[in-house]
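FORM 7B - TANDEM STRUCTURE REPORT

SECTION 1: FIRST PROTEIN
SEQUENCE AND TOKENS:
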Amino acid sequence: MERGKVLDKAKEIINGARQDQYGRPEDSFSAIANFWNAYLKNIKGDLNSFDVAMMMALMKVARMLRSAGYEDSAIDACGYIALANDMVKMPIGVIND
């Protein structure tokens, strides 16, 4: 990719499609932080891959609050939950990265 082209593309996305889909970044990030803080209050010890999958799902849920009907976020949230579910079925010790 041409130098700087990725920056141009990112600028186009954050000032256009993403802003239209999720609203102001400050509001979206605040909602995500609220979900993550609630999750982290229930965690003992270090985060592991299961926790990351769950927190990514929560990010998608928070985004859905700002974009009702946005199917991609719902699909992504389901995918993260399915991955977390698969990790729960792993042999003991495997999930403790």
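SECTION 2: SECOND PROTEIN
SEQUENCE AND TOKENS:
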Amino acid sequence: MIKKIKVGILGCTGAVGQKLVSLLGDHPFFEITELAASEKSAGNKYADRCSWRESNLMPEKVKNIIIKSCHEDLDAKILFSGLDASVAGEIESFYASKGYAVVSNSKNHRMDQNVPLVIPEINSAHCELLKQQESYSKNGGFIVTNPNCSTIVLAVAMYPIFKNFGLKKIICTTMQAISGAGYPGVPSMDIMGNVVPYISGEEAKMESEMYKIFGAMGNSQIDPASFKMSASCNRVPVRDGHTVSASFETETKASKEEIIEALKNTYPDLGLNFSPDYVLVYNEDPARPQPLLDVNRGHGMTVTVGRVRECGVLDWKLTAFGHNTIRGAAGAAILNAEYLVKGGFIK
């Protein structure tokens, strides 16, 4: 029997928190031992306080866990944070200072100089940054983040091209699912039969996060990638899954066949529990990817890419799609934690 690592979930009653509970319910070496939320939820059994919105049943083992507040000591080594950005920054710093490994889905610390912004298949080397965090040498505590949900889809699609041919420019337009806004999402009168061409802060996050993720690891910091990027973000009436249309110019000119070959064959198998069989799948069907057909590929952890074709302004364009609350949020955090355990960063 493998001795399981005790984990807790901060923001356990929210949309990302519930997804974390759902995905971790039968994890082979993580065991949920603590749940934490706001003061109004603290002291209640999880089943009594949480309005469960996941399609599968609430795991039996968490139903009777008493929710604690987000400033109490927690019987766990790893804390997954699904906290709202309005409170996440201070709470995550508090727990890192107390010796916990904080694996965050929140935006607050993503651009901190000594906090890794990680997609393990792309930039696992950036995890070395956490050793620069004061708490790491003191008591083993640290903060690691995963990117924004739309950033992850674009990054997974563009990394094979960046690695093999370099990038000069990216122009992308997103079509983002309503679940990305959290529960209950966008009011039906605002989104049904409509497209909302504004998501607060999203475009700036995509641009800055891409530069950091694709940056080179220096002696004490990440040197941001130097390509130019422009993002336009839209909310569309899709329940789950973000679609991204991207045009790009490469440093080294490549043929369509070379681009597709890179997309198909760049990613390694990390051998982690949450690693999909295929990080990226290229679909030759000109009508793919589509949310209804591709959202659950790789149990929600695979990004589907299609429609590589010439661009009249830059070199090439493509369409990418991924599950925003799994690969783009909870699943990404779990994969990060698994990598940190494998890499010996969890003391």
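SECTION 3: OBSERVATIONS ON SECOND PROTEIN
The chain has two domains: 5-148+329-342, 149-323.
The chain has a mean pLDDT of 96.

SECTION 4: SIGNATURE
Preparer initials: ____
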